[in-house]
Amino acid sequence: MTLNGLTAVGVPSKLPAFILPLRIAIIVLSVVILALAAFALSVFGSYAGYLGGYSGASGLLIFVVIKTWIIYGVLFFLEFKMPQNYYRIVALIAFVFSIIFWLSAWAWSASLASFWLSTVCYGGVCVGADSYAKKEGGALAACAGLGAVVWVLSIVNLFFFVRACIAEPSSGVHQAELGQVGGAPVGGVHDPNKEAQGNVYPVDGSVPGGAPVATAAPGQYAQPPVQYQQQPVYGQQQATY
Prior knowledge:
membrane; transmembrane; MARVEL domain-containing protein
């Protein structure tokens, strides 16, 4: 196990089977949150907005939802269409930022929901939430609850993604360029010429396996001795050796 798997390229193959349904659930819940945030924005332009409401939390929720669609949409495309361009470190950073934004969005929504649904007392007079405030507070409370669920699911997705990357340091398969390593024949075919060049036999004429090689007997092909005649010196008889 090594952290090099987080910087490798390629989709980790050891992701659990439930990761895909989990990501689909995140997208489906984000669609519901988008509808609730849009409803909260519509209430903002009514009488409740006149009392001091603002669209900060609802606007942040819409932004986070659209960002989530972009992140998971791009990652889905890379996983199934272009896995060779799937940079794990980029996916890791995107998941981390998504978790941070979801935490901010649902926490802010919960804070505003408690404000709209609470009873306000001023000068000894307490005023409860009217119909507009209840609509605004209810929509933001639902966004906060569903956003918290998406936040937890995003953390689970990040945990198993990191674990799968660490368990699979590299996505490539390294193979020998010229076949098997260690002098083994490529494709199982022997080259007789290379085999003959590589065979070395002892000087005694034997070959591996004990079969001797016929050699010439000493003197069998020896040349006969050459007789030399000494040229006679002028005035002397020729001597033969």
